UniProtKB/TrEMBL annotation:
Heterotrimer of A, B and C subunits. Its EC number is 6.3.5.-. Residues 328-479 form the Asn/Gln amidotransferase domain. It catalyses: L-glutamyl-tRNA(Gln) + L-glutamine + ATP + H2O = L-glutaminyl-tRNA(Gln) + L-glutamate + ADP + phosphate + H(+); L-aspartyl-tRNA(Asn) + L-glutamine + ATP + H2O = L-asparaginyl-tRNA(Asn) + L-glutamate + ADP + phosphate + 2 H(+). SUPFAM superfamilies: GatB/YqeY motif (SSF89095), Glutamine synthetase/guanido kinase (SSF55931). This is Aspartyl/glutamyl-tRNA(Asn/Gln) amidotransferase subunit B. GO terms for molecular function: ATP binding; glutaminyl-tRNA synthase (glutamine-hydrolyzing) activity. It comes from Dasania phycosphaerae.
Length: 481
């Protein structure tokens, strides 16, 4: 039987406010455990929460960015459940009247096709604390610094049909929230986490299958792996005549294993009710329009500008314009070297490959935008070839200095002296009379291939430092005499 995968995402985004959503406690990452949890965060008797206005504005910014309805009246609810890292015994969130209503996000897939993913709503809520299981041999620790950090939870419709679409959607959301500046999007610090709802159904069937939810995935790669594993598991169950149980699951990225966590709850299991300590929030049209006027450039607009202003292809523009940090890095390289195409090739090629390999963000690149531009300048003025440039880049990555220092220290300057190159070409041709004869007897099409056969010995003689363009000119001139 042919199966169809159905995927929906719930994306938790920590908002980049200086203080928590209902208290003045700091949200700074990395503080010593339990040093940033106030009496309000712990809901001690006699404390009352106050809504963080900046968090409300950030949520509105997101809603406007995805063309969503902004609800001018929203309320906070209590979601009741017990877990050790939730000291209040409930989470303050939004259910019936969230601040952001229905919207949509357009994604682009690897084949160039586009698809619209509907967003059901996005609501504000507080984060829970964090359970720590690896510090004590027989006990778990609780760090409540994160408790009360403002989140926006983005809930999609079940519109995705593959892990590729889910990852593309998650990446697009990441690019939107980081471009807006409402979150740093640092998944290693938990700033963005994904809950993935997966079900399968026979191809052509309209009715949705039983779904499972895999929680707290904190990378695009882990999300892709978890989806593949869950789809395979559900197919195996159904094809062997068993049923898929509605449950919450966990995925261990270190072992590649998934396991059941608990049976999936329904909304009534949480006994939602309006929070008695918080009044409904009223947002005026004037406030919404003032926020709209301050929106920064969004990913789709930036990509269109890269095509129009820099002559990039749509594909290159999507790679370089999707994330704000990458876009700013690329534009800085272009500004310093004056060549957008070469800048695009190096940022999306050599640099991105190295960053991915070492799991670094571009903001932590050992090679700055200005330093990379300096390398590109040396390619443009024929000081080094593209091949040697990769050696120089490697040395720069290892902290050996800028391009000029590396080229000088390693003696990598390209040989462009016509007299010296002619002498080497003459020696190589003299050592290969059969090749010369074969070239002279060949037609034009074959001659181009044979010409390359002389390049190897010439490059070896010059330790790879001969100017390839000049060598080709000299070879053609001498062979065609």
């Amino acid at each position: 039987m042919e199966w169809e995968t159905v995927i929906g995402l719930e994306v938790h985004v920590q908002l980049a406010t200086q203080s928590k959503i209902f208290s003045g406690s700091s949200t700074a990452f990395g503080a010593s455990p339990n040093s940033q949890a106030s009496a309000i965060d712990l809901a001690l008797p006699g404390t009352l929460p106050v809504v963080n206005e900046q968090a409300m504005h950030y949520a509105i910014m997101f809603g406007l960015a995805i063309g969503a309805d902004i609800n001018q009246r929203s309320i906070f609810d209590r979601k009741n459940y017990f877990y050790p890292d939730l000291p209040k015994g409930y989470q303050t969130t939004q259910m019936d009247e969230p601040i952001v209503g229905a919207g949509a996000v357009e994604i682009q897939l690897a084949d160039g096709s586009h698809k619209t993913i509907r967003i059901h709503h996005a609501h504000l809520e507080e984060d829970a604390g964090k359970s720590v299981h690896d510090l004590f041999p027989t006990q778990s620790g609780i760090d409540l610094n994160r408790a009360g950090t403002p989140l926006i939870e983005i809930v999609s419709e079940p519109d995705m049909r593959s892990s590729e679409e889910a990852v593309a959607f998650a990446k697009k959301l990441h690019s939107i929230v980081t471009s807006l500046g409402i979150s740093d999007g640092d998944m290693s610090q938990g700033s963005m986490r994904f809950d993935v709802n997966v079900s399968i159904r026979p191809k052509g069937e309209d009715k949705l299958g039983t779904r499972t939810e895999t929680k707290n995935l904190n990378s695009f790669r882990f999300m892709e792996q978890a989806i593949h594993k869950e789809v395979e598991r559900q197919i195996d169950l159904l094809e062997y005549g068993e049923e898929v149980l509605q449950e919450t699951r966990l995925y261990n990225a270190d072992t590649g294993e998934a396991r059941s966590m608990r049976s999936k709850e329904e909304a009534n299991d949480y006994r939602y009710f309006p929070c008695p300590d918080l009044l409904p929030v009223e947002i005026s049209n004037e406030t919404i329009e003032a926020i709209r006027a301050r929106l920064p450039e969004l990913p789709d607009a930036r990509q269109a500008r890269f095509v129009a202003s820099y002559g990039l292809s749509e594909y290159d523009a999507s790679i370089l314009g999707g994330e704000r940090d990458t876009a700013e890095y690329f534009e800085s390289v272009t500004q310093h070297c004056g060549d957008a195409k070469l800048a695009a090739n190096w940022v999306s090629g050599e640099l991105s490959a190295r960053l991915n390999n070492e799991e670094l963000s571009i903001s932590h690149s050992p090679v700055s935008a200005e330093a990379l531009a300096g390398l590109i300048k040396r390619i443009k003025d024929n000081t080094i070839s593209g091949k040697i440039a990769k050696q120089v880049f490697e040395a720069m990555w290892q902290g050996e200095g800028d391009a000029d220092n590396v080229i000088e220290a390693k003696g990598l300057k390209q040989v462009s002296d016509t007299g010296a190159l002619e002498k080497i070409v003459d020696e190589v041709l003299a050592q290969n009379p059969a090749g010369v004869a074969q070239y002279k007897e060949a037609d034009d099409k074959k001659r181009k291939k044979l010409l390359g056969g002389f390049m190897g010995p010439i490059m070896k003689a010059t330790k790879g430092q001969a100017n390839p363009g000049m060598v080709n000119q000299i070879l053609a001139k001498k062979l065609n005499q």
